[in-house]
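Problem 3 from the worked examples.
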Amino acid sequence: MHAWPASEVPALPGKGRDLRIHDTATGGLVTLDPGPVARIYVCGITPYDATHMGHAATYNAFDLVQRVWLDTKRQVHYVQNVTDVDDPLLERANRDGKDWVELAEGETALFREDMTALRLLPPKHYIGAVEAIPGIVPLVERLRDMGAAYELEGDIYFSVESDAHFGEVSGLDTAAMKLLSAERGGDPERVGKKNPLDPMLWMAARDGEPSWDGGSLGRGRPGWHIECVAIALDHLGMGFDVQGGGSDLAFPHHEMGASHAQALTGEYPFAKAYVHAGMVGLDGAKMSKSKGNLVFVSQLRRDGVDPAAIRLALLAHHYRADWEWTDAVLAEAVERLGRWRAAVSRPDGPSAEALVEEIREALANDLDAPAALAAVDRWAARQGADGGADEGAPGVVSRAVDALLGVAL
């Protein structure tokens, strides 16, 4: 599966700072110190509907991670998946009378268009669940053969008790885990499971649903968590730098994925940091496909909204915060974009060297994009008030905003 085209990232003078970021597993800030190549895995979409602002906010956050790393002169090895076969996708296809493959391909194509418009840097490897099945089957067989998985009426389940570190990613107690498991695709009430929290690794073929040859597992399709584990291990290996996604993925998805990988390899940890973006709401509730309270990136673009303004609206909120999308949020972003473009359109202006360092420091401090935006606001206000004699300053600001914030002025 192909990703989307990359926008050019301008090179800036000097060198950025190492990233301090909030790690869900430890509950505090950690300073990431990757080698020459930083490794990041971000969980992708289930393509049964268009990209909404919640998706955009999450992927924007991890685009900032990449930009901070690139500014430290590192290479970035970024991997993202597409869950192109799963219950929600099949249910939507049945509801709308569409072929599930056609639905997945169409929505994935629209996602690529949205990511290109927002100038989010693409993954090096963009892998669909279906194409990953040949690599998933041997992992499930290995877990079963080593006693970390078991069969129940043809389905294969992972035993959470096989990983001594289970629970360390989310830090939740058993009661909270059971509740979230039921809400987020698990089946804690199924009779016969060794532990109610045990997640499915391989679902035996069901009538009327797609299935694949699973070797000794029989025909079926993979569970949600093992999909990402297989892709991450194949392309990044154990101990990569950041596992990312929305805060609703901390449990069960990232918790289970870590345990799968740690049981398979006997190594710890799966990822050095687990980083989670907040939820975007609309009309008082989390924006979600199940609720239907969605603002789509593609619709805003069709309505003539500049993608740079959409991106500024996202950047105005700290990535870990839960926030509400409103018309006022977008209006403020459109106004800010206009002020910034007017400021950099002048032939000279106040010196920009300190501004570049302010942006760098803000982003290195747990991706504090609102502080970075405020710094640019102050420079733009000075440009309007007293100008300046630095002929190169507007160009420096334009390149810095592009390179570090992904906004083209």
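Problem 4, a separate protein:
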Amino acid sequence: MELSKGGPGWAGAGDCRKGEGSRPIHTALSCRMDSFEDRLRQLREAFHTGRTRPAEFRAAQLQGLSRFLRDNKQQLQEALAQDLRKSAFESEVSEIAISQAEVDLALRNLRSWMKDEKVSKNLATQLDSAFIRKEPFGLVLIIVPWNYPLNLTLVPLVGAIAAGNCVVLKPSETSKAIEKILAEVLPRYLDQSCFAVVLGGPQETSKLLEHRFDHIFFTGNAYVGKIVMAAAAKHLTPITLELGGKNPCYVDDDCDPQTVANRVAWFRCFNAGQTCVAPDYILCSQEMQERLVPALQNAITRFYGDNPQTSPSLGRIINQKHFKRLQGLLGCGRVAIGGQSDESDLYIAPTVLVDVQETEPVMQEEIFGPILPMVTVRSLDEAIDFINRREKPLALYAFSKRSQVIKQVLARTSSGGFCGNDGFMHMTLSSLPFGGVGSSGMGRYHGKFSFDTFSNQRACLLRSPRMEKINDLRYPPYSRRNLRVLLVAMEERSCSCTLL
């Protein structure tokens, strides 16, 4: 494929000098290849040399990511503010600090994650060595969305590097300021013979997906996820899909409405609502709705002032296309709070909708904005039935002072993640896997789960070439006696007995 204007541009490719992994590489910021295939072939060749496999190389690349975050913190914050009007607080909490924590965790645990994992054996293999080897897939592709463009680039990249892969990164062209840094600055901190950034929009991504990769990691919406999955299927490429969905939030009658309002309003409006795990609608009784609406108004006013448009803490919608879509959703139900918008500023006010019908557009699509519909139900059972009639969400939330209510919602529903009495705090724990189920995605990452996602769990058994007499049990001519002995020997057990 010719790299003409509008074609893929490779950052850190071509004649750029290869990074050594232990320090930033100061070269031409972006180089272009004569052909798409050449660059992919170079990356594959680098992998097949074994360059990415040693722990020392992986650690050096992770240290490069750490320096990238430290050296360019202010520039990254400015880019996030330019793309999404993110405050320094939100950028630090949800983008930079989380990425740095993932790097630090991988560096601390890299050698233990890489170790062969011994497994239990049966009587027939007591003298042998049985283990799981975590080996890299090879050349992996990471496709990144625009809403958390740094976090959703670096967190999976940490897992891919720690697992020993070569990587092609495809950042979103929508978050242009961050895309520029990822293309021009990030490659200086990595070994450019093993990592590349490809630029472009949907057309370029489609061309990229025509090629074979050893694993594809995609974060985005379900519609594009189906396209990525179909492309991967042509090469039987394993895939991780991190998708979205409509995340329910059940509020029990016994809750303190102000506590619920504080937590829900913050999580719904964080990043201007452009968060895949944000509470997407509230399910509660009519009585709780009447108490919750003024509490939500109080929380929004305390957080963002009487005129949220002037608040430095509230972000903006990414572009006009998404603004227009959200503006259309404001016509659903009845506006109880907010409802204002300003296209010239890409501003949508924190909004609460009541009297919403299940068939309205705001209940049919992921909102991805600071709009919160409320749907009334008569009981917990009705709320659970409502949730279970719909696709399985990426996250599910339940608020109640009674632990048995929280446990009922957890036991009788299914979702990628669950949090009781708060918003998406479960995502702050790298000890918990993050991912969807059904239409909200497949596969898990964060912490060691990222390492496992980008690793082939290779089953290994090393047998002795001696003591062949023992194998007579399995060879013809067969007998009932040998069968009985062999079946006993093949039973898996954790014993220290020795086969004589």
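Solution to problem 4. The CA atoms of residues 396 and 450 lie 22 Å apart. The chain is about 40% helix and 15% strand.
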